[in-house]
Design brief:
- The structure is a single chain.
- The protein has 143 residues and is mostly helical.
- It has two domains: 3-61; 66-136.
- The chain has seven helices and no strands.
- α1 packs antiparallel against α3, α4 (66-80) runs parallel beside α7 (121-131) and α5 packs antiparallel against α7.
- The chain starts with a helix and ends in a 12-residue tail after the last helix.
- 12% of the residues are buried.
Length: 143
């Protein structure tokens, strides 16, 4: 049974058992009968639900800054890929020679920064995510 139906059933139950009846017609919003109190609670709950929904939508709509996105990308690159995969990705994107092995991490960082400045961070993001387990993949914010 839906929540709306349950609320309606409770409203009918309260109305049927209301001794003395509701004074809404004579007292308006000042009526303090159980039914009017219940209706006010329902209104507040509905408003709270709408506010929570709007807050959630706003939070999802605020994108990370490019700097924060690049930090996430670096973390996925360093922690999610092994050394060979890191080299393969950077070689595929043309910032590493294909036969490069055992280079210092500063070289990879330099290569990643070259991709960022060159507008290819989205390509790097895509290649990194392809190599991560599916449950750890994050949508590409650079595209």
């Amino acid at each position: 049974m839906s929540l709306k139906k349950r609320i309606d059933r409770l409203r009918v139950w309260i109305r049927d058992r209301l001794s003395g009846g509701c004074r809404m017609l004579s007292q308006g919003r000042e009526c303090t009968c159980v039914l009017c109190d219940f209706d006010r609670i329902c209104e507040v709950a509905k408003e709270a639900k709408e506010v929570a929904k709007e807050a959630k939508e706003e939070a999802q709509a605020v994108p990370f800054s490019q700097e924060r996105n690049f930090e996430i990308l670096q973390n996925c690159f360093w922690c999610g890929l092994n050394r060979k995969e890191q080299h393969d990705v950077l070689s595929k994107l043309g910032v590493f020679p294909v036969n490069t092995t055992n280079t210092a991490m500063t070289l990879e960082l330099l290569a990643m920064n070259i991709l960022l400045v060159g507008g290819k961070a989205g390509d790097l993001w895509h290649e990194v995510m392809l190599r991560l387990p599916e449950n750890k993949r994050i949508p590409n914010p650079f595209n």
